[in-house]
Amino acid sequence: MAGGAHHRSPGLAKSNIFPAISCIIFLTNNERSLYYLTMPTETQSEKTMTCETCKVDCQRFGKHRNGLRRFRCPQCKRTYTESHTRTLGMMYVSQDKAALAVQLLLEGNSIRSTERITKLDRNTIMRVLVLAGERCAALHDSRMRNVTAKFVQADEIWCYVGKKDKHVRVDDPEEFGNQWVFVAMDEQTKLVPSFVIGKRTKETTLSFLRDLKERLVDARFQLTTDGFHFYERGVEDVFGGTVDFAQLVKLFGDFGQFETSDARYSPPRISEVISKIRDGRPDPDHICTSHVERQNLTMRMQMRRLTRLTNAFSKKLENLQAAVVLHFAYYNFCRIHSSIRVTPAMEAGLTDHVWTLTELLAN
Fold first, then answer.
1. Shared domain check, 101 and 61
2. What range does the domain containing 120 cover?
3. Is the pTM of this model over 0.85?
4. Model pLDDT, residue 122
5. Per-residue b/e over 102-123, b at no fewer than 16 CB within 10 Å?
6. How many domains are contained in the chain?
């Protein structure tokens, strides 16, 4: 350059050199149906704000404690925070940290390990969990309607609140002791349209079956459960002979389970499997509970409060309910299932894309 002068290309000064680019990833399921996943790149523009009083452009003035940019008027010195939407209502924790905390909880971390990683207080993390659970409960209730399912499997998974049944005292809260998560899963789409948390009683079983009926389309389907005795009369009372119902009873033995100390916590061996047709004409090839039992393993691996042989357990029923509904909302809408290569909600036709965690919490 002559005279050492530097020239700038017009339009590049104080502006984004590259615009925001969206990366589109195409996904296919086993039937070669085409879906898409849009991943926008997050580039902050050089935006400013106008003072409401002086009507002049404000200057950058650092960041708010939640990470948002702040601006200050050069004349009246009034400060402003950039426009934003509060994903977590009135909580002042930054959206990125809250999303990280929720993601860690969804991946099986405990409350205290999440506290050490995010530097958030454990009480703040619990409030984030409960708020996220409330949002996901409303989402599940509104989206899980008129679901089409041909082969539904139902099972229960054990957990406890506060203490196990053998340690519960007379003056303890009613929610203390064993709790059971009743889960219904579609064998083909891997969708979980219904789940209920409660004691393993007739009332909870009927509540679970009624909830399942309300979420499925009014069409005949096949239902397979385990050998829990309240299902036999409950399915007849709720569905009134409109389903093909079978129970799969597994008989376990204790051979080798108590021979050595290492085998104490080993699962017992299955000695016999009995299929019992209760109503209609269920397809023998689909009398199975393996898929929903595999979902039980996913729950124990992804929710720390359900992991066996640890000191991580729910202290309040409200926290357990929030964690479970958050898990199933994330499983249905955000997590790509390895066997169908899309999310269960996409496979069931409830949505056309993979949801982000921020999108899940914002709904």
1. no
2. 97-362
3. no
4. 94
5. bebbbebbbbeebbeebebeee
6. 2
